[in-house]
Design a protein that fits this description.
Length: about 375
């Protein structure tokens, strides 16, 4: 019996672009918001009176500013895209949506852009820095910002700016799987200052929405792509009581933790106590499967899943995109439906309304053994 988990198409392949070569073709295929002018994304002279065009473009500590002018907003926006593309030497096209965010009584508009190049580089979170429609000629001038710095640097600096100081300790409150994640550790390095006189505490919450994952910390909403989820979760903090969960090839050889699509494999589970075994698959797109529940397992006696010679087959969430899924084995002294975890798992999806946080907290306090393995499926 072959089980292929998910084949829905979504996600973006990410390859670091070469930033030092100019790709002229970017001026040709820039067409998501309409075809560019035949003269390409050449900017108007920067001596114009518009305040949006007065700041010199170029990168400053990983922040890129692109300016554009045009007969209307789409044309000006295309030219600003092209300006950033020229700075990064990537080929650009874009599908955009506009979100209006209100912060500190100031309304700012963010274009959540996905700019793709022939090298499949991806730029996210383009921000509207300046918009000028006051030109008597009717032309529109604007500037976009792209922050290419690591996630923890971007949001760490925003937290410090919001606080007005650097605390000596950033105390994150929540599930240990979140407070000890690689992202949380990196964030502390940016926010904290050993010479600071105060401690700052903030809840940390991870939720799945219709638009993907959001991490909430210190009044910041931090969007995460599916493939960034392992950066925000330290799954290994959930392991306890020496529950062994090992992926195996059909031959019985231990499987590496990164495998190609369509690999057939089984799980070997060995517990240090007797009880009910449950195997749960938690996928980076927010879906959840109860693969097995209430299987009888004896102490120090390996159990193979699937039983009776069956196999599982590894699948990708999206073509050409690394997929990292988490598999959780539990051994409890009660059937799954009688544990505190049972009601959460009935929904088949975690992440909304804080249920993912409750899932982690429940696992951390569950009376039983837990073993977690992150299995990555890499495109060939």
């Amino acid at each position: 019996m072959a089980i292929n988990f998910r084949q829905s198409v979504k996600g973006i392949r990410i390859v670091k672009p070469a930033l030092h070569s100019v790709i002229v073709a970017c001026l040709i295929t820039l067409g998501c918001a309409g075809a560019p002018d035949t003269d390409g994304p050449q900017q108007l002279p920067r001596t114009l009176s518009s305040h949006c065009l007065t700041v010199t473009t170029g990168s400053t500590s990983g922040i890129y500013r692109g300016i554009g002018s045009g007969k209307d907003l789409p044309e000006a926006r295309r030219r600003a895209y092209a300006d950033i593309a020229e700075q990064l030497s990537v080929l650009v096209h874009s599908d955009s949506e506009i979100q209006t965010l209100k912060q500190n009584r100031t309304v700012s508009t963010d274009w959540n852009e996905r700019i793709h190049s022939l090298a499949t580089a991806t730029l996210d979170d383009l921000q509207l820095d300046c918009l000028d429609k006051s030109d008597p000629s009717g032309r529109v001038h604007l500037a976009l910002l792209y922050d290419a710095r690591p996630l923890h640097v971007r949001y760490g600096e925003r937290i410090v700016e919001l606080l007005g100081y650097q605390p000596h300790t950033l105390n994150l409150v929540g599930a240990v799987a979140l407070t000890s994640s690689p992202f949380a550790e990196d964030l502390r390095k940016v926010v904290e200052n050993p010479l600071g006189k105060e401690e700052f505490s903030s809840d940390i919450i991870l939720e799945h929405t219709a638009n993907g994952w959001n991490l909430y910390v210190a009044e910041q909403v931090i969007p995460l792509k599916d493939e960034q989820l392992p950066y925000a979760i330290n799954w290994q903090t959930l392991n306890r009581h020496k529950l062994s969960l090992i992926p195996q090839l059909i031959s019985g050889k231990r499987l590496p933790l990164q495998i190609p699509p369509a690999t057939e494999y089984r799980w070997e589970v060995t517990a240090n106590n007797t009880g009910y075994l449950h195997l749960i698959g938690f996928y980076q797109d927010g879906q959840l499967d109860i693969l097995r529940q209430d299987l009888s397992i004896r102490r120090a006696t390996p159990l193979i899943i699937p039983e009776q010679g069956g196999v599982l087959e590894a699948g990708l969430i999206a073509p050409d995109t690394l997929t990292t899924d988490s598999y959780i084995a539990l051994v409890t002294d009660q059937p799954l439906s009688e544990t505190p975890l049972g009601s959460l798992l009935e929904r088949g999806r975690l992440g909304a309304n804080g249920s993912l946080n409750r899932f982690f907290l429940t696992l951390e306090n569950l009376h039983g053994a837990v073993g977690v393995v992150n299995l990555a499926v890499a495109p060939e």
